[in-house]
Write a structure and sequence with these properties.
190 residues; mainly alpha; globular
Length: 190
């Protein structure tokens, strides 16, 4: 008699579908208190998941952290530019890094392939090699990148549905989908 093999389950840092949904909604809600709570939850995930944390979650958290700091009024303009700048540079570098082959491919081409606006790559170039841009441009870049992450990663993870499922069975099936997608984290969502 052969034993029936069960599919391997992926271990993730979040408790379940409801926590995942709550964090996504919290990050994108616009209320700094709720955003900070979501950032705290992402920090807990990071401590559990370490380097396996999906790049999109990490980048989203860093960009939202900049927005929370900005809305707090505690940082000067120059400090905000540096904060936004680092988050934007990391985003472009991390997202395009996976697409690099043995031969160096220009960032603009890689960005085009994953549908990142070219001006965001140019902003990254200015932040890295040129004169620091205006704060308004950094804020705009952050908003555009957050929207890209929402559409390209978060909405796909949620199946384009922000509503929590009420039935346990459906919730369990959806959690399995989130867990399966967690394996795709760094490669597939590009």
């Amino acid at each position: 008699a052969r034993k029936r093999l069960r599919p391997l389950r992926t271990v993730v840092a979040w408790r379940g579908r409801a926590e995942w949904d709550q964090v996504m909604v919290g990050l994108y809600c616009g209320d700094s208190r709720l955003q900070q709570e979501a950032l705290d939850r992402v920090s807990a995930w990071k401590s559990r998941y370490g380097p396996k944390m999906p790049l999109a979650v990490d980048c989203t958290a860093e960009l939202i952290r900049c927005k929370v700091l900005d809305s707090s009024g505690r940082l000067k303009s120059h400090e905000l530019i540096l904060s936004y700048g680092l988050a934007l540079v990391r985003f472009v570098n991390l997202i395009t890094e996976r697409k690099q082959k043995m031969v160096s491919i220009p960032l603009r081409q890689l960005a085009r392939e994953v549908d990142i606006p070219i001006w965001v790559v140019d902003l990254r170039h200015e932040l890295t090699h040129g004169k620091l841009p205006r704060l308004a441009l950094c804020r705009k870049g952050c908003d555009v990148v957050l929207e890209w992450l929402r559409k390209t990663y978060w909405s796909r993870q949620l199946g384009n549905n922000l509503c929590e499922e009420s039935e346990d069975e459906e919730e369990e099936e959806e959690q399995e989908g989130v867990e399966a997608n967690a394996e795709l984290d760094n490669d597939a969502w590009e």
